[in-house]
Amino acid sequence: MSLPSLHIDINQPDFIKDPYDQLATLRKEMPVYLDSVWNKVFFTRHSDIAALLKDKRLGRTMLHRYSRDEIGWPPPDPREAPFRRYQDNVFMDMEAGAHSRIRSLVTKVFTPKRVESMRATLERTTHKLIDAVEANGKADFVHDIAEPLPVIMIASLLGIPDEQIQYLRPWSNAIVKMYELGYTDQQVEEANRAATEFMEMIGGLAAERRIKPQDDLITELVQVEEKGDKLTEDELRATAIFLLNAGHEATVNGSSLGLRALFQKPDQLKALKEAVAEGNSTLLKTGVDEMLRYETPLPMFERYVIEDMDFNRVKLERGMEVALMYISGNRDEARFNQPNELILSREDNPLLTFGLGTHYCLGAPLARLELQVLFSVLFTRCPNIQPDGEAEFSSGFVIRGLNKLPVKL
Ligand code: HEM
Q1: Fewest beta carbons less than 10 Å away: which of 105, 186, 221, 303?
Q2: DSSP H helices in 135-182
Q3: Residue 32 C-alpha to ligand 1 middle, in angstroms?
Q4: Is ligand 1 within 6 A of the CB of residue 330?
Q5: What's the pLDDT tens digit per position in 46-102?
Q6: For the chain, what are the domain ranges?
């Protein structure tokens, strides 16, 4: 079957804010299409996305199977070299043995026990952030609470000294601009600078930990060993940076979009406040997953087609890029009852928000815990919280979130 061709500018502010009607039409009328400008094959149905994420004929790279020459990729752009030194060592962008080698080393240190050990610090930190704004009677939820919380948590998990935490967010912001479809020369320059400074800082901390180990993840990454295998210096630095970035970017957006969604559905907000007041953690758990389904903070991920394949009669050729619209799968009427409703008690919830398959989010337990604690403390401390003006979306679709969400406490 030949693919229908079409272009949707996913970076349009209106689409970023509310892509749902267009996505519903696509799921019904053109669930797979070739975007004529991005030159990628877009998939919008839950069943297709889930199947493709488990299919080994697709991957986040092809370089584990072919040389650049074999697949006609140009040599890496030398202007991006400092950024690439970081990105080429990020295990999320690896496949097969290279990926599983680093993922299993990281899994050994980033354990459920370590995540659970963060609960008390999380509660304390959330209280402190609310203390700082409570007297004003109002706040910008994004700036004052949603953003600092995961940054402080992931930084303390890794062992970043307090005085260096301020750099993480700007560095991370500059780096993630490279993941959008289309970026400017200035953005490349900023990402290069951020990657270089970030790699240096982590290198310095790792050197200190080798001499004087601490109870933190950088120390564990320095020491981790499996069957005699260890991380190289660049892998160690890139892994720590990646954990820091992945460990807050989406969580900030997940909690901000989640609160905005609650404001739009007062009955659900009321139910959650009541559950928190009664100490009912079941609704908090299903509710956080539902918020993350209803508004997807990382709406789209891509894969390369590694070998020619027939997928549901669609011919996918080696080297093609596919764009998987998790945000659309999360609202698929074929998979979810009342997909456009926020139903915090939803139990059958196979959300695609954390991906599926070999790259399934390693930080999902931490992200869930952070959101559960945040909403629990927030509604206990501020049961009358309400919107105080319009929420503002940030630019960019691939990392989708809010710049501000003014609230009365
Ligand atoms: C609401 C918050 C979060 C969301 C929505 C999210 C989403 C995702 C998704 C969709 C993937 C898979 C990407 C793909 O399919 O190509 C992923 C991978 C990953 N995430 Fe998260 N994430 C979140 C929070 C976190 C946190 C807190 C951490 C902690 C450090 C983290 C660490 C990772 C890592 C290490 C991977 C790479 C896994 C691999 O390639 O094997 N994430 N995340």
Answers
A1: 186
A2: 148-158, 165-176
A3: 25
A4: no
A5: 999 999 999 999 999 999 999 999 999 999 999 999 999 999 999 999 999 999 999
A6: 5-408
